[in-house]
Amino acid sequence: MMITSNTYQLPLTFEQILILVQQLPKEEQIKLKQEIDKGLNAQEENLLMVFDRIGKNAQEKGLTEEILQQLLADES
């Protein structure tokens, strides 16, 4: 079964969604959790990619570990 990605505008609160999910059979709850985990992991990877890009750009502009430590020490 392929899960499609659609956006639905529903006037539901988190608590209402939770109640609906709790009414699903256990197998469906597990599938839902796996899909949510996939989405979270994808977002996490994207965030790490952004941090990597920022770090590489900073290094290309001359930021070194020593300069970084000085900058961080200045902030405290």
What does this protein look like?
The model has no long low-confidence stretch (mean pLDDT 81). The protein has helices at 14-22, 26-60, 65-75. The longest helix is centred in the middle third of the chain and has 35 residues, at 26-60. The chain is built from three helices and no strands. The protein has 76 residues and is mainly alpha-helical.
Radius of gyration over alpha carbons?
A: 21 Å
If you average the pLDDT, what whole number results?
A: 81
Q: Per DSSP, what share of the residues sits in E-state strands of 2 or more residues?
A: under 5%
Number of helices: 3
The count of β-strands is 0
Which shape, going by the Cα principal axes? elongated
Question: Are there runs of 5+ residues with pLDDT below 50, and where?
Answer: none
Summarize the structure.
It contains 3 helices and no strands. By secondary structure, the chain is mainly alpha-helical.
Topology (SSEs and partners):
Elements: H1 14-22, H2 26-60, H3 65-75
State the main characteristics.
mainly alpha, 76 residues, 3 helices
